[in-house]
Structure formats: C-alpha cells, structure tokens
Amino acid sequence: MHEMSLAEGVLQIIEDHAAKAGFSRVKTVWLEIGALSGVETEAMRFCFDAVTRGSVAEGAALEIVATPGSSWCMQCGVSVPVAERYDPCPRCGGYQLQVQGGTEMRVKELEVE
Amino acid sequence: MCTVCGCGQGETKIEGGPEHAHAPGGFSYAPHHHHHHGPEHAHAPGLPPGRMVQIEQDILAKNNAYAGANRKQWRERGLFAINLVSSPGSGKTTLLVESIGRLAGRHPLAVIEGDQQTSNDAERIRATGAQAIQVNTGKGCHLDAHMVGHAFERLDLQGGLLLIENVGNLVCPAEFDLGEAHKVVILSVTEGEDKPLKYPNMFAASDLMLLTKTDLLPHLTFDVARCIEYARRVNPKIEVLQVSAKSGEGMDGWLAWLERGVVGAGLPAISA
Question: For the domain with range A3-68+102-112, which CATH number is right: 2.40.50.180, 3.40.710.10, 3.30.2320.50, 3.40.50.970?
C-alpha cells in the first residue's frame, strides 16, 4: 500500500505550491502515472481522497494520465511497446529489454482558485 | 518536532529516540466518496475555469532528495550501503547474522533493521556484537530515505558496510531509494520460483538476487534455472548468487561480493 505514501507525496507537492503560488483551493490534480510504475490507480484514488481531507485539495478531482510502457530491445536495437515488465519483445520474443518509458510518477498540473 | 527537517509526530519509531515522524499523521479511512472524473481539463458546468499551475514534479522527489543526501554522506564516509529486500520469512536476518559472524570484524559495519513492530531483529544482530538500530514503521510498509537518514544519525560508522534490512514486502520498498549502492533482493527457495514475475518491480530495481535456504533444495521442487530465467526476464542484468546460511554453501561468494563493494567504496579492509 505504498500508494498512501505516494498520495502523501502528492499532497506535499500541492501544499508547497499552495504556499508559493498563493492559492487556497485545488479543483483538479493531474498525475502522470506510467504503466510500469507499480502504482495501482484505484488505490491511488482511494488514498488521495483520504490524505487530502482537510487540506487545500479536499474534494479535488484526480485525473490520472497513464503513460505507456516502452523498452529498448538490445537484440532488435529498437524501442518496443511493453505492457508489463516481464513481457517479451513483440518483435523477437526475447527478454533483453531495458525499460525506457512508463515508470513516471509525476504531478503534472493543478487547476486552482 | 524534528529540527533537521521539521517533521512532526507520527507512527515511525526509531530505537533510542523520541517518537519520530515522517508521514503527516492523522488521516482516517472514512468512507470513500467518489468524485466526478471528467475528461482532461473539463470544468464543472456553469463555473468559471480555475487557474492552471504547471507542476511537473516527481511524486517521490522528496524521498529522492533525502536519498541523495544519504548517498552523499555515505560516500564521504567511504561506506558501502546495501538495501536488503524480500518477502517476510526469506531468512534476511539469519543471513545477516551468519554473514556478520563470517566477516569476523574485518570491516566496520552496522545494520539498520526495518519492521512494522518489535526490535527482535535488531536484538538478534546486536547479539553478534555488531551495532544495529531498529526502525519501526508502524503501519508503514517500507523504509523511506528520511527515516533511514535519522536512524543512521544514531550509528557510529566511518567506512565499511551499512546493511539496511527493509520491511519484509516485495512491493513497496521497490519504489523508495534509501541512498544505497545496491538493492539486493533475497528469495528463499521455499517460495515460488515465479516470484520475479509476480513482483517484477522489485526484481527490476535490484542488482543482485540471493537465492537463500539452498540446503533445502533436495526436499523441494523449486526449479533454480527457471527462477533465474524469470528474474532475467524482468532484469537482464541482475546478478544471482545461491547461498545457504545454514550449511554455509555459497557464503564465500556472497561475502566476496560484499567485500568488493566495501573496497570499492573507498576504504581498505582493516587487517584482522
């Protein structure tokens, strides 16, 4: 359940920006979560609701933008899409893959007032 | 309140100190209320749109900043720090106790033990004569770089080996850098050989897989070659060592791996 820690991290980032940018309420939070990041988005929503209660982000809508997984196949020498870390290369069927994209866990943007 | 980082009271406890916090405490599992999750940049009808604030910040940025500070401090002290991760019951503490005994004072070392509750593991380590500090994470499922940094303040270690035994959990500790040189994932042969596929992030995050309890292999159907193949599917570069703390088989290879790291971290071994 590390989504709880991650949700606390999101709230911390929001609160830091609230202090700096001078807003008192967050209406929408956009997160970018990679397909290979190990984050369960439903757990993230649940935890986000729990940790933001009583904060500037209470009741904010959470928009999760999923980014696809991609790996570099060392055999084919090209970047290939992967849905899971244990997937083989869709071209050669091998496992000589190095993850390139899809591990992101970022706060992208806020809609505030 | 912690004067270093301003953190307040929470669930984390570090032995020998006041209760120390890292997580903002006090949330409760109130009933889940559902928000409207509209399309991107949708606004409630009839309401003026709010101001947009670009953030573009990694959620783990704070942990990673603490991890960076730990790594810097440990590098300056010539320490080789490793983060041992596994399921509960893989034999991490037994392996550490046996490893410390065999290192026989050749290097200064200390252990940070993470568990949700009890100081049993730190006491087992201290029984070997080594320094150990227990971190109880309370409800937390992993160590983070902040609590480890505070635990380290209570150790006296200059050069040598810092062994961090994470909370037994193959999921969450994968995401949290503590400042270690390597994550080492421990998989006992009494577990399923497909664990690297079931918990791929942990095996992807680790540089070494230790297969432990290999003395039990004759009694099991565990397929070592298949397990290694699965681990390399998720991490083609992972090193693998097979050890039994009980019979001693493979311990030399593991200790040699540790000693290479200690030497590489910049301080020569203390002659025995």
Answer: 3.30.2320.50
Predicted confidence (pLDDT) at residue B209 exceeds the cutoff of 50: yes
Chain A residues in contact with B55 (beta carbon < 8 A): 13, 17, 106-110
Mean pLDDT of B6-35: 53
Tokens at residue B41, please?
């940049």
Residue ranges of alpha helices (H) inside B42-167 are: 61-76, 92-103, 120-126, 145-153
Those residues whose C-beta lies under 8 Å from the C-beta of residue B12, and which sit 6 or more positions away, are: B19, B20, B21, B22, B23, B135, B136, B137, B138, B140, B147
Which among A12, A95, A106 has the least Cβ separation from residue B62?
A12
What per-residue confidence (pLDDT) applies to B26?
Answer: 35
Q: Does B32 touch chain A (CB under 8 A)?
A: yes
Q: Does residue B204 have a pLDDT over 70?
A: yes
Q: Do A110 and B36 touch (CB under 8 A)?
A: no
Residues 117-136 of B with CB under 8 A from A: none
Q: How confident is the model at residue B186 (pLDDT cuts 50, 70, 90)?
A: very high
Give the start-to-end residue ranges of the domains of chain A.
3-68+102-112
Q: What is the ipTM metric for this complex?
A: 0.87
Q: How do the domains of chain B map onto residue ranges?
A: 62-263
For the domain made up of B62-263, give the CATH fold: Rossmann fold (3.40.50)
